[in-house]
Every structure is written in structure tokens, then in C-alpha cells.
Amino acid sequence: MPETMDTQDLAFQQPTAGAPKGYRTPFLVRLWKESFGYLLLLPALTIILGLNLYPTAYGIFTSFTDQSLLDPNHYNLIGLANYFKLFADPIFQLSFLHSLELTATAVGLQVVFGLILAHLLIQRVPGIQLFRSLAMVTWVLPIITAVVIFRFFTLPNYGFFNLLLTKVGLSQWTRNWFGDENFAFLLVLVMHLWRNIPFYAIAFMAAMQAIPQDLYEAARIDGATRWHRLIFITLPNLRYIILVMVVLHVTFTFNNFDFVFLSTGGGPVNATEVLPTYIYKQAWSGYALGYASAGGVVMLVVLVILVTICRRVIGGYETE
Amino acid sequence: MKATHRIIVYLGLALFYLFLLGPMAWLVLCSFRTSDSIQSGHIWPALSELTLYNYLEAFNLNNFPQLVGNSIFIATTVMLLVVLIASLGAYGLSRFPLKGKPYLMLASLLPQFFPYVLVLVPFYVLMSNLSLVDTHVGVILTHTSITLPFALWMLTGYFNAIPRELDQAAAIDGCSRLAILFRILYPIALPGLVVAGFFAFVVSWGDYLFVSILSQSNSTQTLPLGLQSFLQSLQVKWGLITAGTVIAIVPTILFFAVVQRRLVAGLTAGAVKS
After folding, report:
1. What kind and span of H or E run contains B117?
2. Strand partners, A65
3. Between the CA atoms of A187, A192, A198 and A200, what dihedral angle is there, to the nearest 10 degrees?
4. Which of A63, A86, B74, B104 gives 20 to 30 Å between its CA and that of A240?
């Protein structure tokens, strides 16, 4: 890419190109010309540096202090104390485990179901266009509304799900699903699937449509079965988009605060507590900003490791 | 064979879409039912039980219209700001020889991976030092900062795909460098701009986390906060909540209907290489 950059704006140099030999463009004119690209980037860069990178760096710094929300301007450096405390904290360990569990199962299932739905959506059956255009509806909704939808659907007394169970004679199965220790976590997982599977499906579908059809023709002539075609043609060709979607959603799921906080608040009895909600509570209910930041740094490190693992396992990047 | 194939496809699609749309349909249906009807334990309401009362009640709550107004104002401003700032930056990254361009691109994508809860604390301290807590400006700046990196990355990909001969020709015809962006690139990249704007709008519209720490009064609260407080009230009024939820959903769905075709191409623009 960089090679093309140098030749591309010949047109912008047009005025000086025709100037007499020995003529030097005045300094200010040159500065204006050469800095124009940077000027364009200035607002974006200011926001990214000032409101993204700086707060993150400051957050890393805060993790080595005992800063409190009650008096954020006075704090002491306390070294790694927050980290030692964190690793000895049983609820932090539990949240850590839940976060990993949720991320792994959600992303894994999303890839599988995304592939299945994508496979259905590329079939040329009448009305398929309608299904395609409706697909991403769940992804654009605010998370709070997704939470309301699921809480309302699973209400103990008059939620659709329990009504249905009663109708088919399974009334002993009805329960307060979000309030049940054994099911709350499952519901959080289901909400993640509900929101994201269509996004995977549509992205995979677009990539599937880009695979040259003659590959399949050739395979068919060679007598390859459906499974062979899937494993040896479709999946290898989807490698890159799978990597992109997985990395995107590992980040999204691992960092996601809203689903758990808004649906269960981490309960019942910490059954759904994940790192973002636990850290949030440490900062805004426990006032322990330094401690919370240390948790945030751990998340950042884990995320880097997870993304690296994904790249290693799925590969595909090198082939680009 | 062909018929069975079709049946299997439709059956599979039916299962998926029942899961995706079923819970949503139930909520929409119940938002038009009286409270008694919702609590009656019947799945299908009688015709006489249908009502617009929940919607009227929502808009008669003294702070609800303000929540809607705040949400619309904030999300729209964020959308416009992000599209403007990101397109300027993307134009710079795509068309000008900048030193350290790969690092600039990396710096613009990196924040996408930072845990929000880590950024939250310094963010709050920063905003309170700037006296921007509980102001529209504070919330708008915040939402702009969380959506800008992705929009910048995406639009750079979009601009890179537009042939450079176009702007060179315009430059020779005497078009200024800024005019090239607005007159030549904007019309061609319109689908990309719309998707970037849509992304910013949806994130801002749905954000709970940042608004929850930055907003401390009715004057800056948005719909997600309002819905959450309805959910937490002692006596949960489901009629009101379902209606409020539908109101929060409608704008995103309308916007989605407009951009739907472009959405995936746009969202994966940085990812799918030509």
C-alpha cells in the first residue's frame, strides 16, 4: 500500500511542477501544502489521543495507586498491591472464570450457528431476500431493549415462555428464569447469541458468495461429498472473515458490560458476575478506583492474549 | 429432491427466525395490551384488550419526552460529528503521504480493543476536571470518542477503494483539496458515510455504560437509563416498559431499513480486502 501513496497526489504538486528552475516554494506555502494531510487528521487524532489513548494510559497508571472516587485528586502510589489483592479476591476469580466461559462458548456457538444460517441464506429459494434483509435486526437494537425483550419473555408469571410450558403440560418446569442460579448464566449466553448470530451469518454469506463456483464444480466432478466441499473449499476460503469476526466478538463479548449488568446485575449470588460488571461495581459502588483499574488492566492483558491465540489457531492472516 | 431441499431450507430458516423475531414480536404485541390483559395469562389477547394506553402513559410521564429528546439530540449530533471528523481524517490517511501512517492507523484501531471499564475511571476524572459531567457536550464527546476509531478505520478503507484518477482530474480542473473531499469523494462514498453515521448513531443511542456515569440528572439522561430505571422501580409496570422499549427500538429499525443493504459491506470494509 505505501508504494502507491507517493505517486498518488501528483496533481497536488502541479503548480510547482511548471515553475522555473531554481525556484523554491516559499516556506509557508510549503508548510501549508505538506501539513494539509496532518491538519485533516488533527481533529480525529486529538479525540483518539485525548479521549482514548490518554485515559487508557492514565487507567494503567491508576492501577498502581490507591485512588478513591471519594477524593480522586489525592492518592498514593502503592505498587502492585492492587494486583496482589485482586488475585486473592475470590469473586474476582469467579468473574474471571465466567468471562472466559462466556466468551469461549458465545463465540464458538456464534461461529457454528452463523455458518449454518449463512448456508441457509445463500440458498436460492423464493423469498430468501426477505430473510436476508431482516437478519441483522437484532444487532441494531440497543442492548437495554434486548434485555427487556428477554426479561419480559421469561417473566415468572405471565412471560410467554412459561405460558407456553404450561400450555404443553410442562408447568413443573416453569420458573423465574433470570432469578434462577442455574439458568441466569445460560440466558446471558442466549442473549449474546441472539444479538450476534445474524451478523456472523450475513458476513459469512457475503464471503461464501465470493467463492468461485468452479471450485465446487471441479470438486463435484472429482466426486467430493457435501462434507468434503465444506471442509476443503468453503471453510478454507472463509478463514479470513472467520478470524475477523472471532477477534471482533471475542473483544466485544469479553468487554461487554451491558448484558449482564442490565439483566441480572451479576446475580443471583454472583452466578452471572463477569469482569466488566465486577470492576464497574468496584469503582462506582466501592469507590476503589485504583483497585478497579487494576482489574481493567488484567482484562486488557487477557484480551491481548486471547486475540493472539485466535490469530494463531485460525490463521488465515498470512495468506492475505 | 428439489422439493425436500426447499422444505429443509425453510424449516431451518423458520427455526432461526422464530428464535430471532419471536421474543421481539411478543414484546411488541404486549405493548398494545392493557396491563390486565398482559397479566391474564392468555397468549392471544381479545380484540377488546388492545389499546394505545401504554404509549400515552409513557409520553405523559413527566420525564419521558425529555428522555426521547435527549436521546435524539445526542445520537444525531454524535452521528454528524463522527461522519465529519472521520471523513476528514480518512481523506488525510487515504490521499496524503503522512509519516508514520501505519502507526496512525494502528492508533486509530487500537482503542476498539480497550476494555471500557478501564477507560471509564480516567474518563470520569477527565470530564469532571473539564466540568463536563452531566452536560450534553460531555456525553456527545464521549460517544464521539468511542465510535470515531472504527468510523475512521472503515472510511479510510472506503476512500482507498475510490480510484485516485478522479481526484487528480478534479485537481487539474482547479478543485481545491477540501472541495475534492466534499464534491468528489462524498457522493461516491455516500454508502460508506451512511454506514459510519448509522454505526455512530446506534452506539450512541444504545449506550448505557458511559451515560450512567456521566449523567446525573434528568437534563442529560437518555432512553436506556430511563428504561433501566423503569425496570428497577418497585412495582414494575410492564405495559409502560414494553411501550417505552418499542419507542426506543423504532428509530434504529427505521434507520436500519435505510442502510440495511450496505451495512455488512460497510462494517467489514476494513476486513475484506480487494
Report:
1. helix B116-129
2. A77
3. -140
4. B104
**Chain B residue whose CA is closest to A126:** B6
Residue A69 placed within a domain: no
Residue A319 pLDDT = 44
Whether A305 is in a domain gets the answer yes
Q: Does position A17 have pLDDT exceeding 60, yes or no?
A: no
- For residue B163 the three cell numbers come to 480510484
User: Shortest Cα distance from B192 to chain A (angstroms)?
Assistant: 16
Q: Does residue A174 sit within a domain?
A: yes
Residues A115 and A187 in one domain: yes
Provide the pLDDT confidence category of residue B247 given band limits of 50, 70 and 90: very high
Same domain, A37 and A97: no
Q: Distance, in angstroms, between B116 CA and closest chain A CA?
A: 7
Q: Which of A143, A244, A280 sits opposite B268 (nearest CB)?
A: A244
| A171 HSE (CA, 13 A, CB side) | 7
For chain A, give the longest Cα–Cα distance: 94
Which residues in A lie closer than 8 A to residue B23 (C-beta atoms)?
149-150, 152-153, 160, 194
Q: Which of residues 228 through 247 in chain B touch A, CB cutoff 8 A?
A: 228, 231, 238, 241-242, 245
Which pTM value belongs to this model? 0.88
Question: What average pLDDT score do residues A199-210 get?
Answer: 88
Residue in A41, A61, A166 to test binding to B, most B beta-carbons within 10 Å:
A41
**Does A304 map to a domain?**
yes
Query: What distance in Å separates the CA atoms of residue A159 and residue B98, rounded to the nearest whole number?
Result: 58
> Where do we find the cell 467430493?
A224
What is the full DSSP assignment across B49-89? GB-SHHHHHHHHSTTHHHHHHHHHHHHHHHHHHHHHHHHHH
CA dihedral sign of residues B151, B154, B157, B163: negative
Shortest Cα distance, chain B CAs vs residue A271, angstroms:
19
User: Same domain, yes or no, for A123 and A252?
Assistant: yes
In angstroms, the CA A180 to CA A161 distance is 15
Structurally, chain A folds into a number of domains equal to 2
Residue B96 DSSP class: S
> What sign does the CA torsion over A37, A43, A47, A49 have?
positive
Residue A108 has pLDDT above 70, yes or no: yes
CATH number at residue A309: 1.10.3720.10
Q: How far is CA A128 from CA A112, A117, A202, A209, B265, in A?
A: 21, 12, 13, 14, 19
Instruction: Give the closest-approach CA distance of A210 to chain B in angstroms.
Output: 11
Tell me the CATH class for B62-267: mainly alpha
C-alpha cell recorded at residue B230: 423503569
Q: Which residues of A touch B194 (CB under 8 A)?
A: none
Confidence category of residue B269, pLDDT binned at 50, 70, 90: low
* Contact residues, B window 4-63, toward A, CB-based 8 Å cutoff: 5-6, 9-10, 12-13, 16-17, 19-24, 26-27, 30, 38-41, 43
Q: Decide: helix, strand or coil at residue A304.
A: helix
Instruction: Give me A9's grid cell.
Output: 497526489
Say what the ipTM of the complex is: 0.89
Percentage of chain A exceeding pLDDT 90: 41
Residues of the domain holding A28: 2-54
* Nearest residue, CB atoms, B172 vs list A11, A50, A251: A11
